[in-house]
Design brief:
The chain is of the alpha+beta class. It has a single domain, classed as DUF1653-like domain (SH3 type barrels). 24% of the residues lie in helices and 40% in strands. Strands 4-3-2-1-7 form a five-stranded antiparallel β-sheet. Strand 3 and strand 4 form a beta hairpin. The chain starts with a helix and ends in a 5-residue tail after the last strand.
């Protein structure tokens, strides 16, 4: 079990290097903005990793999405685009 947790911890660390916890992202479909709150393991199946994020509109609801879905590309008008794209804010 300890070895499994070490492997999962490394996987979570790898994912955290690919996205920015605290960063803002825009969804390809609704163009709404979201803030990534954290990365979570599913308690029943820890190998399932979720991105936890908050909508920055409306009621600011908190959502969870499997990492694989968060990170995938979708096809729009024949072009592959990220489902969630990081927003670069100007300082």
């Amino acid at each position: 079990m300890k070895q499994d947790l070490e492997i999962l911890s490394k996987r979570v660390d790898d994912i955290k290097r690919q996205i920015t916890v605290g960063g803002r992202y825009r969804h390809y479909k609704n163009k709404q903005e979201y803030e990534v709150l954290d990365i979570a393991l599913f308690s029943e199946e820890p190998e399932q990793i979720f991105v936890i994020y908050r909508g920055l509109y409306g009621q600011n609801l908190v959502w969870a999405r499997p990492w694989e879905m968060w990170n995938e590309k979708v096809e729009i008008n024949g072009q592959k685009v990220p489902r969630f794209e990081k927003i670069k804010h100007h300082i």
